[in-house]
């Protein structure tokens, strides 16, 4: 029996750190049975991948102190008492005129510390702490409306891949851990959030032109066709985040936002990518996003498209949905 007033705990080795995990047997995924310690071990098993996805990015933590069926806490500010070896960046939020020191992962120990703090999901910015206001990642979020099946998401992804190829840009796809797909592109950090969003909207409109039966860029959700896929360009706006590659999602199935190869697009079932299956996949295939930092691309062509669309009378949607 642990001493009165103390919770049971265990220690795990995470790189050069030894992290204490309290309540390691607490069930985090009741429908499946995985525990807090299982979650920590999952992240250790994909350590290189999750660190690469998060490295030096301000990261919002989605915490579930009693497991995924309980309350979810969105944590931007690093709590008092956090270890002094954690790296952070101070972010200013103009809407509230407040600042927060957000976690910036630089090693697997940072990830496991966050798990100890009951984090399930990791949601990083698309910029890094060295220049927070200039993104180095363009995110293509294929978000199906309620009546759109995954086959329609697949078709949309193929069209997006076609457009990227014509632009000479390499995109890195992954499941969202939900019903959609994400495609990430490394870009030169030369543009602010507004320009990256404009470029993303121009790209989305081109995908819509080529697949109008499957795709929508309609801004207001209530006006969208419920059977189409929304190419969500607004995920490139400042302080908008989505689950990182290798992030577990806070759902009953413990799905994982999982990097895939383009050749897998027609066969992958996102429901098969879980906390239980991804470690073996990672051990066999490694990180399919391992080369994402090898080349960064420009947005000049896309911004030309954006200017063309503006000349032709296209609306510029507001940045808050």
Structure description:
This protein has 321 residues and is of the alpha+beta class. The strands form 4 sheets. Strands 5, 6, 7, 8 and 9 form a 5-stranded antiparallel β-sheet that branches. Strands 11-12-10-14-13 form a 5-stranded mixed β-sheet. A two-stranded antiparallel sheet has the order 1-2. The N and C termini lie far apart (51 Å). The model has no long low-confidence stretch (mean pLDDT 96).
List the helices and strands and how they pair.
Layout: E1 9-14, E2 17-22, E3 27-29, E4 34-35, H1 36-45, H2 47-54, E5 58-63, E6 73-75, E7 88-93, E8 98-104, H3 108-116, E9 119-124, E10 137-144, H4 150-167, E11 172-175, E12 181-186, H5 193-210, E13 215-216, E14 229-231, H6 278-285, H7 300-311
Helix pairs in contact: 1-3, 4-5, 5-7
Q: What's the helix-strand series?
A: EEEEHHEEEEHEEHEEHEEHH
Q: How much β-strand is present in the residues?
A: 15-25%
- What would the principal axes of the Cα set say about the shape? globular
Span of the ends, CA to CA? 51 Å
Strand segment count: 14
Q: Count of DSSP helices?
A: 7
Structural class determined from secondary elements: alpha+beta
| Mean pLDDT over the full residue set | 96
**Uncertain runs with pLDDT below 50, 5 residues or more?**
none
How much helicity do the residues have? 25-40%
Outline:
This protein has seven helices and 14 strands. By secondary structure, it is of the alpha+beta class.
């Amino acid at each position: 029996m642990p001493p009165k007033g103390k919770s049971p705990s265990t220690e795990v080795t995470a790189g050069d750190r030894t992290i204490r995990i309290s309540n390691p047997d607490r069930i985090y995924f009741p429908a499946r049975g995985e525990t807090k310690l299982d979650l920590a071990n999952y992240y250790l098993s994909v350590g290189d991948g999750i660190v690469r996805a998060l490295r030096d990015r301000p990261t919002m933590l989605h915490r579930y102190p009693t497991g995924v069926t309980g309350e979810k806490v969105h944590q931007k500010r690093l709590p008092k008492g956090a270890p002094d070896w954690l790296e952070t960046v101070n972010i200013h939020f103009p809407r509230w005129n407040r600042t927060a020191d957000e976690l910036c992962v630089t090693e697997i120990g940072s990830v496991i510390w966050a798990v100890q703090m009951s984090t399930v999901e990791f949601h990083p910015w698309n910029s890094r702490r060295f220049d927070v206001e200039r993104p180095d990642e363009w995110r293509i979020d294929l978000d199906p409306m309620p009546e759109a099946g995954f086959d329609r998401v697949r078709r949309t992804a193929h069209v997006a891949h076609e457009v990227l190829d014509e632009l000479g840009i390499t995109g890195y796809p992954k499941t969202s851990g939900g019903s959609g797909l994400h495609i990430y592109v490394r870009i030169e950090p030369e543009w602010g959030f507004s320009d990256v969003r404009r470029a993303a909207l121009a790209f989305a409109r081109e995908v819509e032109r080529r697949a109008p039966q499957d795709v929508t860029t309609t801004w207001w959700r209530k006006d969208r066709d419920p059977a189409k896929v929304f190419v969500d360009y607004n995920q490139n706006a400042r302080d908008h985040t989505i689950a990182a590659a290798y992030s577990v999602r806070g759902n009953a199935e413990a799905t994982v936002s999982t990097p895939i190869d383009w050749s897998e697009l027609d066969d992958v079932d996102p429901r098969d990518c879980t906390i239980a299956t991804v470690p073996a996949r990672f051990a066999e295939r490694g990180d399919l996003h391992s080369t994402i930092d090898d080349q960064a691309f420009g947005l000049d062509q896309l911004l030309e498209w954006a200017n063309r669309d503006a000349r032709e009378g296209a609306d510029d949607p507001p940045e808050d949905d």
